[in-house]
Design goal:
About 35% of the residues lie in helices and about 20% in strands. It has about 425 residues and is an alpha/beta fold. It binds zinc ion.
């Protein structure tokens, strides 16, 4: 090994990304490729063809997750798993998930080109329905594999037209076998776009991801009194929207004062009766709270609940709060983070360690094996939109880091993970 640095074939990788971008392409350069649609099938067919051309052993499990495994000196040894997902949001970009899968393919192609002798197999994966845009919840294929979701739960999920996951998986011909689920994994490394603005703003090439933030989703209903906008004096109103606005402002202030790692987002709001000349009688809004530290997040959550209750008392309205989702933070493997850091240094890349604000397949796979992620910068922090873009130089560096770490782990028999 020493200072031998392997390099991916950037032209080939960009051609592969371009070929993917044509399947479900949108006018402004993005992609619409929802899980288990015809476009998804077309992408899967092409991907499987690429895997076979790279001399990989292809398997598909009962969730439609696609795997391709290399040969190795110890073919039965648990593989190093690399990949992500190929589905997109309704108006998605060309890189989210896709870059992780296609960089993994490029890593394998480069290992093949250089005739690298592998001690243990490298396995590429594309997980089904990471986005959850057609069938909720998201991160479904990897969640099924790791046992977070039951098969019956996954198969019964419906899209907005009432079609089930099972029907659509069968229709596109990608219901594989339960026995082909990957069970024994040596480690998992997922390359992904950052989806936030930090790396670009700090002029860095690479983010070495140390974990994924935990989050809480709260639904808050404020019940005031709906009245006529004219005859009801200001002093006699119980305006649910005005109270909700105070609640939103107050909880944002609390989070801002906490630290620069916590976030709060109010992304949904509904007003009743939602009429120009009615005092709003009832407002329902969502709160999304995230923090890398579970204890701090839970504290923030209970503090916010208290504050909202206090505001409701002061404003003389009723409040109902319902916790609709909670997930704890995920810590990635210290050893993998060390390997990634060493290789990033050796390759001369500017990097930082960071926590992911978004969920990824790596979250659920980390329940099965040692896991880590590589982030590459997103221009203007944009993702889940057609403008999503990662510069070619960053794609090259991210894929090269993945390649060199995989080569290190796959060729050394006594590697420490
Ligand atoms: Zn993704």
């Amino acid at each position: 090994m020493g200072d031998k640095k392997l390099s991916i074939n950037l032209n080939r990788l960009m051609q592969t990304i371009d070929a993917s971008a044509k399947i479900g392409s949108l006018p402004k350069g993005g992609i619409r490729r929802l899980a288990l649609t015809d476009e998804d099938k077309q992408m899967r067919d092409l991907f499987v063809e690429w895997l076979k051309q790279s001399d990989l052993h292809v398997r598909i499990d009962d969730f439609g997750n696609i795997y391709g495994r290399t040969k190795a000196q110890n073919p039965e040894a648990p593989p190093i798993l690399i990949g992500s997902h190929l589905d997109t949001q309704p108006e998605g970009g060309c890189y989210d998930g896709i870059l992780g899968v296609l960089s993994a393919l490029e890593v394998i192609r480069t290992l093949n080109d250089n005739k690298i002798e592998l001690n243990r197999p490298v396995e590429i994966v594309s997980f089904t329905n990471e986005e959850g845009a057609r069938f909720a919840p998201p991160i479904m294929g990897s969640g099924g594999l790791s046992g977070i979701f039951d098969k019956s739960f996954i198969f019964s999920r419906q899209d907005k037209d009432g079609k089930t996951f099972e029907q659509e998986l069968k229709r596109i011909g990608y219901e594989g076998n339960e026995k082909d689920r990957l069970k024994d994994i040596f480690c998992y490394i997922e390359l992904h776009i950052e989806q936030g603005p930090v790396l670009e703003r700090e002029n860095l090439d690479i983010g070495i991801v140390t974990g994924i933030q935990g989050m809480n989703w709260l639904e808050v209903k404020v019940i005031g009194q709906s009245d006529h906008a004219g005859p009801t004096p200001m002093s006699m109103r119980k305006d649910a929207l005005l109270t909700a606005a105070k609640m939103i402002t107050d909880s944002n202030r609390l989070i801002l004062e906490q630290d620069n790692e916590s976030t709060i987002t109010v992304g949904c709001i509904s007003i009743s009766p939602n009429s120009i000349n009615c005092v709003p009688g009832e407002v329902t809004f969502s709160i999304d709270i995230r923090h890398p530290d579970n204890q701090i997040r839970k504290q923030l959550m209970s503090e916010i609940r208290q504050r909202l209750s206090t505001i409701a008392i002061i404003e003389q309205v009723q409040i109902e709060m319902k916790e609709i989702w909670e997930t704890n933070s995920t810590d990635f493997s210290d050893e993998l983070i060390i390997h990634l850091t060493e290789e990033a240094k050796r390759l001369g890349y500017q990097y930082k360690k960071m926590v992911s604000g978004a969920g990824h397949d790596a979250k659920y796979i980390s329940d099965m094996t040692d896991t880590a992620m590589i982030f590459v910068p997103s221009v203007d922090g944009k993702s889940h939109c057609q403008e999503e873009y990662t510069k070619t130089e960053y794609i090259e560096k991210g894929a090269n880091l993945l390649l060199n770490v995989v080569q290190k782990i796959a060729t050394v028999s006594n590697v420490n993970i």
